Amino acid sequence: MTQPKSGDTFGVVGLFESADALMAAISKVREAGLGKVEAYTPYPVHGLDKALGQRRSPLGGMVMIMGVLGALTAFLFQWWISGIDYPIVTGGKAPTSWQAFVPIMFEVTVLFATFTAGLGMLFFLNKLPFFGHPVLHAKAISAITRDRFGLAIEAEGDAFDVAAAVRALESAGARPIEVISVPSFSGPMTARYLERSLLGIAIACAVSGYATYWAVKLFPVLPPTSHMLVQPRLDPQKPSAFFKDGHGMQLPVPGTVARGYLPLGVTSQEEAATLVNPLAVTQKVLEEGRQAYMNHCVVCHGPLANGVPTLTSAYGAKPANLQAQQFREYPDGKIYWAIVMGKNAMPSYAADLSEDDRWAVIHYLRALQRAQNAKPGDLAGVKFEAGSGQGSEGKAP
Amino acid sequence: MIEAYVTREELRRLLSALLVVIIFICLVALFAFLIIPGTRNANAPIAVPAVNPPQGQTGWLDVTEYPPEAGYTVPPVDPKTVMTPTPALLARGKVLFEQNCVACHGPEGHGDGPAAKGLNPPPRNFSQPTGWINGYQIEGIWKTLQEGVKGSAMVEYDYLSTKDRMALVHYVQSLGDFSHGPEDPAKLAALAKLFASAGQVVPPKIPVSMAMAKLEEEYVAPAPLWNLAGAPALARRSILDPARAARTLAGLSGWRTDERSMARELVRGAPANGFSPAVATYTPEQWRDLHSQLEGIASP
What we know:
The complex is a heterodimer of chains A (397) and B (300).
Chain A: E1 9-16, H1 19-32, E2 36-40, H2 48-51, H3 59-85, H4 102-125, H5 140-144, E3 149-154, H6 162-172, E4 177-181, H7 191-218, H8 269-272, H9 283-301, H10 325-328, H11 332-341, H12 355-372
Antiparallel strand pairs in A: 1-3, 1-4, 2-3
Chain B: H1 8-35, H2 37-40, E1 72-74, H3 79-83, H4 87-100, H5 102-105, H6 138-147, H7 162-175, H8 185-197, E2 200-202, H9 208-218, H10 233-238, H11 242-251, H12 259-269, H13 284-297
Antiparallel strand pairs in B: 1-2
């Protein structure tokens, strides 16, 4: 909305003692037909908009229309994208399956509706931006914001009869009556000020952007920018200026071992036999061992380590039955060696199992061996189900 | 008619409120349709019928959780039934051979199974009389099955029953088209006596979780190293993980008396054994110092 010119008459406002008096006065003042009748009250008064003859707010309808449009937009977008432009079958459904569109349709509906409600109210219905309403500069505003009810006849065009407006308000019972003129606007809340500020910011952005562009273009090697060529490095066929002996590559410190390439301390299975398992036998370690065993060993040695693999006939080799006397009597270190170096058809598992995993697997293997070759005392306190266990001669081969 | 009770405006409000309620109910119904299985189809069975768990090797879902089983003794075998090949024994031997031996020794026993390629020394060729480590007589093959062949991929098959192993012995002999005699009567008699004298003991079985618990219960944690903070710098520098170092020292029998073997073993196991890999660079003097320092802080 264009700002009224400063010094023009904006309108005439009269004050009333009560809302009832205001309501009674409105119809009389409207009948006079002198200009746009507007009320200013300290709180919302029921029936005021109807009495002032204001139309019903179109905001609800706007929100409705835009919400439906949003839903349609979202649906058509998705339908076109996933059904027409680039059809992809997802989850075994038809590409145009609408159920998956619903969340986005909902979101876009809400987006359109809220934006319409917010922006439509502010800019379309409330006619913002509108800086410094003239009534805010009148004396009456201090009364209106406390306990009086203001009724204004506002000028519509040049032919506004101030004296007639004052008379109309007087006869309606307003006391006192004030003629409001459009104040002279100044300060940061004027449109002009804002326009200038925005223009200033735009110019500043443009100037700094161009300045940076040309600065980089004209002076490309100002620090921290530098030419890639100019750096402390060894050039081909040139001695190193950094190291005293002139070599660019130096020998590692004696005894250096590459990360992850620490050599095994033992060189044969017999030597490995004396290695001590450094892990304690705890539930945690056994559980880690079980995880590692189930991930790497079980396919060949079987879940009970009896050489009946989970891969069964898919695999040509005969994996070792680790329940055999020989392996039950193996020291931990020999099993460790077999894990690290592999044995016969078994490859090395050094890359798959960490040091601790290997030792944990050995602990778990001991548990598997104990489970299949338990001591008689282990069954103390175990109750057998009918028909199982205890003296099952029928199972003897 | 209805205007007598409500005005048109009130009616409109009532209807719009009703509309809100209906929409709400529709929304709830939609979600119920999506979430609650029974609302989708009135005829659909609500209770899911019980599905039998897939049967594992031992008939249990987790094959390591079988019920405990008591041990028993297989009665002694009558030597007469196993010392000479019979059709039943050879049939049993063929089945066992295919299960246990074919992978390396090959289907015909020529030592050309799929797993034989990587083996050094190669598996025995049963069709030739040469190269049998323990001899091709009954007693020799029995010994191989009982003890394995040291330094080769042939492991013990002592977990097979006596009868099964004898069936294998006869089947292996039947694969070679040459004379397997003469047998040593004394050795055969010893074998027959062994079969007749003692039954094979089958140990009890317990579930793996129980075995894990037993092992944990039986594990005796070594006493921790004491006063490591007050120990000399060499010991402190050498020990990366005091808990592991304590377990390592507890596992090394005789390290107190034999300084050299201690040095060898600690270097071999580092750093997993809790000692720094730097111990590999120690001089004999440093080892002597470390030995005495460890004796000072290790619990007896």
